[in-house]
Design goal:
antiport, 444 residues, mainly alpha, single chain, disordered C terminus, 15 helices
């Protein structure tokens, strides 16, 4: 498998070329999400609410898996920067072992405790609850393969080889696009059909990852597992995993608050979040690029290069976020009508987009800063920032829904996102830039 040296070359060019495949993967995933939501949306608001509700618990699994994915990605990138191939293999082995355990345990939890999870949301709609659990149960095997596909993508990002990861993710998205209508309508599986198509696509992606990477991503029995490295990966990944799990739990509590306003409100948030993900395509690309770029350069001790890369990514990311914010304010209902025709849902989703438009720039700052913090092996920083302000969303929402109704929930999300972005940049300026990255650069 091709390895790209991110410690050399013009910084903005290297980061852009690294970010483009990630953006491409995000664009493909977004395209799939649009088509998926369009197919499911034809089943009605209840179907959208079912997937939206169960997705909250799927996201917990994705959050827990970052324990292995983030830590493994950091250590692989550092080892590549240090030119230590043996360590690279050992960290990949350790990451695979940890990831497999997480996937198996969480999958079983979804199957046996899924009904209780859905019941906790108090959806007060038997049809939505039934479909939500069915969707959740099928996600148990999906997540096993999805966890590994995410880890493989992260490892390839550490190698600087995002092009191959993009191609493999593209195969998965295209398969999903063709399988969705077949499973949902032709096979008459309804909401479960959306999950079945995702399962098939993830299995095929997993196989392609294994056979197309020259054995890099295979578990090497002759090397075995160094449990000290497993512990090291888990220690690095824990802050981000804990932050993401907490973030998802907070979203579940917010969903309980939103559910008071009916299934239209649940569906509206699901659609609003999907549209908002357009803003995160570019910014997310730079987040991943900065993490991989920073990881290799940190391993090579090229600190000035890290600072330059962060600044370049920030300028591009914030500019894009401002453009997307303008679109959310001016064309919100036109975007929403792509997914659904129910006017009540459209009005609620439009209010969501108009409010979160004001936090887009700050979210961009937070995401790109998180890439840098992760790359230097300091995931506790973004995790701490996110934990504090994400928890703040619940009391903030409870206070604001009294004068503003459902918009109070959206305002709480906006305010805390603004605070996270400001705090992340302050930490970079006063702690990372001035202290942690003050060592003299050893080369360009």
């Amino acid at each position: 498998m091709k390895q790209v040296d991110l410690t050399k070359g013009k910084v903005i060019s290297v980061i852009t070329m690294l970010a483009l495949p990630i953006m491409g993967s995000s664009l493909l995933q977004f395209t799939y999400n649009i088509i998926d939501m369009m197919w499911v949306g034809r089943l009605g608001s209840n179907a959208v609410a079912s997937i939206g509700s169960s997705s909250l618990y799927v996201n917990i699994g994705n959050a827990i898996s970052s324990l292995a994915i983030i830590g493994c990605g950091i250590k692989v990138a550092h080892s590549i920067g240090q030119k230590d191939d043996q360590k690279v293999k050992e960290y990949i082995n350790a990451g695979i072992m940890l990831n497999a355990i997480i996937a198996l345990v969480f999958g079983l939890v979804l199957i046996f405790a899924g009904k209780g999870f859905i019941g906790f949301l108090n959806l007060n709609n038997s049809e939505v609850e039934k479909d939500a659990y069915s969707y959740l149960a099928v996600n148990a095997p999906i997540l096993f393969f999805a966890f590994f596909n995410m880890m493989f993508t992260r490892i390839m990002n550490s190698f600087g080889n995002n092009k191959l990861a993009f191609k493999i993710n593209a195969v998965g998205v295209v398969l999903n696009i063709f399988l969705d209508p077949l499973c949902i309508y032709n096979l008459k599986l309804g909401v479960v059909g959306a999950a079945v198509s995702t399962l098939i696509a993830n299995i095929i992606m997993f196989i392609i990852f294994i056979i197309s990477t020259d054995g890099i991503l295979k578990y090497k029995a002759e090397i075995g597992v160094d449990f000290a490295k497993v512990k090291e990966i888990a220690k690095l990944g824990f802050p981000m995993a804990f932050q993401r799990v907490l973030f998802t739990f907070i979203n579940i509590m917010l969903a309980k608050i939103i559910a008071v306003f009916g299934s239209d409100a649940i569906a509206a948030q699901k659609i609003g979040v999907q549209i908002e993900s357009v803003a995160f395509m570019i910014v997310g690309g730079f987040n991943g690029a900065v993490a991989g770029f920073t990881g290799q350069n940190y391993g090579a001790k090229k600190y000035e290069r890290i600072k330059e890369g962060y600044k370049s990514a920030l300028v591009v990311g914030v500019s894009y976020a401002l453009i997307m914010a303008s679109l959310f304010l001016m064309f919100n209902k036109s975007m929403i009508r792509v997914f659904i025709r129910d006017e009540a849902t459209i009005d609620i989703a439009a209010s969501y987009l108009k409010v979160v438009a004001f936090s887009q720039m700050f979210s961009a700052v937070e995401m790109i800063s998180n890439g840098l913090f992760t790359g230097i092996g300091k995931p506790k920083i973004p995790a701490s920032i996110s934990i504090v302000f994400t928890i703040l969303r619940i009391p903030c929402a409870l206070v604001l829904i009294k004068p503003f109704g459902i918009n109070g929930v959206w305002i709480s999300i906006c305010i805390t996102s603004v605070l996270k972005g400001i705090c992340a940049y302050i930490v970079y300026v006063f702690k990372i830039k001035r202290n942690f990255l003050k060592t003299v650069d050893i080369g360009a």
